[in-house]
UniProtKB/TrEMBL annotation:
Protein name: Predicted oxidoreductase
Record domain NADP-dependent oxidoreductase: where: 34-212
Protein origin, superkingdom: Archaea
CDD domains documented for this protein: AKR_unchar
Length: 362
C-alpha cells in the first residue's frame, strides 16, 4: 500500500522542477495532483499492453495516482494496472492505487447474452440478489461490493487498495427511493469499514457522475452530508473510532464545471457546490473527465486559455481542473505513454490562484 514514507520519497524524487502545489495530501500520503485514469480502450490484448506501458510511464514520470475499476474494459484494466505497478521501477509504497465497485463486470470480453451471464455468474452464484440490481447491471449492496473488493485485490495482485470507491450509487435511484439507497450505502460502508480494519483497504469513497453536482430536485441527486452521516454511523457500528470515508470523485473540467457552479449541497450557511462542501468536510476530491473526455485537446476557450499556464491544451486543461477549490488530483485517461508524460509536465506550471480561478466565472 502507499505509505507516508514511500510517497514522500517519491515526492522528493519527482518534485524538482515542479510547481509548489503539484503534490498534495491524502491523509499522511503525498499524491500527484495529476492522475491517470484507465477507462479508455477496447478490451483487447493490444490495449492491455498499452495501459501497462502507460501506467509504468506515468509512475516513472511523477504521476503516482492510478485510478481504475473492476468493470473497466471487462476487468482487463485492473489486471494491466496491477502488472504495471508490480513491474514499475517505483516501489509499491509510492503508488496510490484506487479502484471501484458497483457495476457488474464481465470477464475479459462481453458475453453473447449479458443477461444470462449476470444471472449465472452473479445471481445464481449468490453474489447478487436480483432485487438489488438496477438496470440488470448495477448493485451497491454490501455482499456484492464485498465480493468486488476481493475480485479487485485478485485482479490487481496487490495486498491492499489505497482508495476504494462505491461506483455511481445514483444509478440505484432509477429503481428505488433515495432513503433506500442511503440505507444500502450505510450497510455497504459498514462492510468497507470492516475491510479497512482487516487491512484490505486504506480508505474508501464514493465515485459519481451526476449525484453531487446536480440540483437538489434532480432525480439523480444525492446529499453528500447524508452520505457522510451514514459513513459515520457505519464506522460506529463496527467499532471504529472514526470513519474511513476519505474521498469523492466527480467530473470536472473547463467544459463541465457543474461541481463548482451548481450549489446543490446544504452547507452550514446555505447551499454550496460539492467542491466547497467536500473541502470543508475534510474530504479529498478527485476529478474525473478532467480533459472533458478529449474535448479539451481541441482547445480551451480563449477567455480561459489566456489565464492558464502550460505548453499544450492538455496541460492547460489539467491546470484548470486542479486549480478548483478542494481538488486533490485531476484524473486524465490515456493509453499513450507519451500523453501521460505530457500530462505529468502540467505540474511544471502553477495552477490558477483562488482569485484568478473565481474570476473565470465572473
Amino acid at each position: 500500500m502507499a505509505t507516508a514514507d514511500g510517497t514522500f520519497e517519491y515526492k522528493e524524487r519527482f518534485g524538482e522542477g515542479r510547481a509548489r502545489t503539484y503534490f498534495r495530501r491524502v491523509g499522511d500520503r503525498a499524491v500527484s495532483s495529476v492522475g491517470l485514469g484507465t477507462y479508455l480502450g477496447d478490451p483487447t490484448d493490444a490495449v492491455d499492453d498499452a495501459i501497462y506501458e502507460t501506467v509504468k510511464a506515468g509512475l516513472e514520470s511523477g504521476v503516482n495516482v492510478v485510478d481504475t475499476a473492476v468493470n473497466y474494459r471487462h476487468q482487463r484494466s485492473e489486471r494491466a494496472v496491477g502488472r504495471a505497478v508490480r513491474d514499475s521501477d517505483i516501489d509499491r509504497n509510492a503508488a496510490f492505487v484506487s479502484t471501484k465497485g458497483g457495476f457488474v463486470p464481465f470477464d475479459g470480453e462481453a458475453p453473447a447474452d449479458p443477461g444470462e451471464y449476470v444471472q449465472r455468474e452473479f445471481v445464481d452464484a449468490g453474489l447478487v440478489d436480483s432485487a438489488d440490481l438496477a438496470h440488470g447491471s448495477h448493485c451497491v449492496a454490501p455482499g456484492f461490493v464485498d465480493a468486488m473488493v476481493d475480485r479487485s485485490l485478485d485482479n490487481l495482485g496487490l495486498d491492499t487498495i489505497d482508495l476504494y470507491y462505491v461506483h455511481n450509487p445514483e444509478t440505484q435511484l432509477d429503481e428505488r427511493p433515495a432513503s433506500e439507497v442511503y440505507d444500502q450505502l450505510e450497510a455497504t460502508f459498514e462492510r468497507l469499514e470492516e475491510r479497512v480494519a482487516a487491512g484490505d483497504l486504506v480508505h474508501y469513497g464514493v465515485a459519481t457522475w451526476d449525484a453531487f453536482r446536480v440540483p437538489r430536485d434532480h432525480e439523480r441527486f444525492l446529499d453528500l452530508g447524508e452520505v457522510i452521516s451514514r459513513a459515520r454511523s457505519a464506522a460506529k457500528a463496527v467499532g471504529n473510532t472514526a470513519t474511513h470515508l476519505r474521498a469523492v470523485q466527480v467530473p470536472f473540467s473547463v467544459y463541465m464545471a457543474d461541481a463548482f457552479t451548481v450549489e446543490s449541497q446544504e452547507g452550514p450557511e446555505g447551499l454550496q457546490s460539492v467542491l466547497w462542501y467536500a473541502h470543508e468536510a475534510g474530504l479529498n476530491v478527485f476529478t474525473s473527465a478532467s480533459l472533458a473526455q478529449g474535448e479539451v485537446l481541441s482547445g480551451v476557450p480563449d477567455a480561459v486559455d489566456e489565464k492558464l499556464s502550460g505548453e499544450t491544451p492538455a496541460q492547460r486543461g489539467l491546470n484548470f481542473a486542479r486549480s478548483a477549490p478542494g481538488v486533490t488530483c485531476s484524473l486524465a485517461g490515456t493509453t499513450s505513454p507519451e500523453h501521460v508524460r505530457e500530462n505529468a509536465r502540467a505540474g511544471e506550471f502553477e495552477p490558477l490562484g483562488a482569485q484568478a480561478f473565481d474570476a473565470v466565472f465572473e
